[in-house]
Amino acid sequence: MIPKLKKWWRRSSWAVLTGLIVIFGIAYLQAANVPVITPTIDRLSLMVFDNYQRLSPRPYEDAAVRILDIDDETIARQGQWPWPRTDIARLTLALGRAGAAAIAFDVVFSETDRTSPHELAKRFAESDPGAAKILNALPDNDDQLARIFGATNSVTGFFLTNGPTQHQAEPKAGLIVSGSLPTSAPHYTNAIMPLEKLMAPAIGNGSLSIAPDPDSVIRRAPLIAIQNDRVLPSLSLDAMRVALGADSVIVNTTDGSREGGEPGDVVSVRIAGTEVPTNGAGEMWMHYTKAAPERIIPAWKLLSGETSEAELQDLFEGQIVFVGTSAIGLRDLRSTPLNDRELGVMIHAQAAEQMILEKFLYRPDWAVGLERALILVLGIGLILALPSLGAAWGAILGGTIVAAMFGGSWFAFSEYHYLLNPTWPAIALVVAYLLVTIAVFYREERQRAHIHGAFDRYLAPELVRRIADDPGQLELGGEEREMTVLFCDIRSFTALSEKLSPNEIIRFLIAFLTPMTNILIDRRATIDKYIGDAILAFWNAPLDDPDQHENAARSALAMSRRLAELNVEMPQQKEEPWPGQVSIGIGLNCGPCCVGNMGSEQRLSYSLIGDTVNLASRIEGMTKYFGVEIAIGSSLNDALPGFATLELDRVRVVGRQMPESLYVLLGEEDLAADADFQQFSKTHAEMLQAYKNRDWSAALALHGENSPGAAGYRLSKTYQIYAERIAAFQTNDPGEEWDGVFEATNK
Asked: Which stretch of 241-245, 407-411, 477-481, 741-745 has the lowest confidence by average pLDDT?
């Protein structure tokens, strides 16, 4: 066991050490909060949680929370904003009479009402003192709203800012901190406050400020904020307190609750028996619902007088009502995981819903420890396994682990509402896999380079490559496989060569062989060898090719089309030698072959042998006799039922006793489906059958019927051959013993 371990360590030590550095480095980055890197990965984590919410939003339940919406129709009915404070008073009074448990305004009434009689009186003080006196005698709009605020469960709002302190926000009820002052909560130095006369009679006062994440998405709602060491409630929290009739709110921090975390981190907020879990900054993770129209009531229903008091009571009695606006030009739009353009008041309302329903998302204090443990345990396990598994199996193992982590994270979210972050462990595994794989690859490449350096001078390059991939292949031999074989040869190459110098012949062959080879390789062919102007290629080795027959047929047809293009293009390129119109013959056959390392002990090459190969070569030779470009054997024809093929003849080729039915390959499925071709094919088959039956008159008649169309399918020479044969057999019948087989005398 020890020797095997030492051998493994010698082969894998560099890769394992690389992986360990990566794993511990990422664990450090997670813990150290490194600028740029850590926030970037944390943002990816938040995007994962966003997707969880999209997949499983919080189901809407009536939590006695409503939004009174100052929408476009309300503005159209009541007039442009800002409204006179008397209208706000009328709206608030209607909500109070309807029995609203709390009326929270997502508006800061920080300026006096410009439409108030006292404000208008100032404008007439010099020009019309009498009018000013009359206006000053009228009730002030802000005073009227203040009286309504004092008579209802109203909650005003303020904004918190950073700048020179001008106003200090004051909570309406006590916020008791159990522990030290929450140091991680958002801190501010200034506040934009409502008018004192409006804020004083209100029973509640909460912050409207919600800071989004760096990508402008609001995923957490702050329940508290700090201004100059004063703890202040959010609008949603103070609306909850007012609705529940609580006198105070308790903020629990780590050193007061004896829970884990940094000193001063917020653990939870307690209000009237409800424990609200938060992060260290006192923020509640939001679990948003999809749009719920029943949550939103347009404000015109209260102000128009069209809704009865009984109906209003049904709508608002016992409800926490958040007053906000969706009217164009007044919208406070925010981005959430479910909606790029969400009303700001909706966040306050949904925060209150979650607190009432006690439906929370939890980021447990043990989550970070679990995620770090996954980084270390799974990461170390993967890097120890990778050198033995290899890249492919390592990828499968790593992918399975990553998928399991995301699956577990999703299960924890959907079933238990836990926010467990799989991003850091997943990144650790991916980076470790990539670097360890690179390290292993580098080691193997060095080993291959050593093998090449040792054997390149003595062995064939193909064999050296295979030995480098698998040194256990240092042996002769092969395997039997079903193969498809192609022979391609230039017709009359000797005559063409006479027009060119030796150097021009080489350039011509390069210009011809390169595009033909590209076509073959694109169709998954293996190029066996070039024999002068000829190409020998095959399919289904060394890799399996389930489409070998179609790939071979389409390759041959593509080679024919490309040659036609070259015959037009190349003569126009004066610098490139091209000896006139070049023609080729292609023979295709399929069947069993022996493929493998062929040759001698001194030199090997990867090639194939067998009757299938020999017959393919003979078939290619018969293309010249029949005047066709592509001929195929019967077994391949049977494997190409959708292609346009026609039987040529039954031939006994040179060197082979068994006759073979040969076919011409004319085109692909589109030609086979052509009505004219189908008629031609039917008549052609009938002609051959009459020919084999020695019915010469019928064969000649059918031949004459098809002859005019033969040229269109480049079968003129084939039909000329049959015309000559039929004429000869009419004069000298071969007799009943004739088997219809043509005896080829040339290869």
From this structure: 477-481
What the block records as the tokens of 175 is: 């916020």
Rounded to whole angstroms, the Cα distance separating 68 from 81 reads 15
CA dihedral of 235, 237, 238, 243, whole degrees rounded to 10? 120
Please name which of 512, 539, 718, 557 lies closest in space to residue 622, comparing C-alpha atoms: 718
Q: Are 261 and 281 in contact (CB under 8 A)?
A: no
CB 44 within 8 A of CB 274: no
What sections of 33-58 are H helices per DSSP? 37-55
The 3-state DSSP class for residue 160 equals strand
DSSP 8-state secondary structure symbol assigned to residue 460 = -
| Section 132-136 average pLDDT | 73
Q: Nearest-CA neighbor of 363 among 287, 295, 290?
A: 287
The answer to whether the beta carbons of residues 102 and 242 sit under 8 Å apart is yes
Residue among 316, 24, 344 at smallest CA distance from 212: 344
Angle at 199 between CA 195 and CA 204, to 5 degrees: 150
How many alpha carbons fall within 13 Å on the CB side of residue 621? Answer: 15
The pLDDT value given to residue 441: 75
Four-residue CA torsion sign, 360, 363, 364, 365 = negative
Cα dihedral 20→23→29→30 (10° resolution):
-150
Token code pair at residue 263: 């000193």
Strand (E) or helix (H) holding 286: none
Task: Write out pLDDT tens, residues 151-196.
Answer: 999 999 999 999 888 899 989 988 899 888 898 899 999 999 999 9
707: its two tokens = 């002859």
Note whether 176 and 249 are within 8 A (CB).
yes
275 neighbors 251 (Cβ within 8 angstroms): no
Tens of pLDDT, residue by residue over 649-662, are: 999 998 888 999 99
Structure tokens at 457: 């001078």
In the chain, what percentage of residues exceed pLDDT 90? 59
Residue 211 has pLDDT above 60, yes or no: yes
Cβ atoms 91, 303 nearer than 8 A: yes
Instruction: Select the more confidently predicted residue: 521 or 52.
Output: 52
pTM of the predicted model as reported, rounded to 2 decimal places: 0.60
Q: What is the DSSP string of 700-729?
A: HHHHHHHHHHHGGGT-HHHHHHHHHHHHHH
Secondary structure (3-state) at 189: coil
* 153: nearest Cα among 54, 238, 55, 279: 238
**Which of 598 and 434 is assigned the larger pLDDT?**
434
Smallest CA-to-CA distance from 584 within 546, 609, 555 is with 555
**Which residue(s) pair with 534 in the sheet?**
531
* Residue 477 buriedness (CB in 10 A; 0-12 / 13-18 / 19+): exposed
- Distance separating the N- and C-terminal Cα atoms of the chain: 63
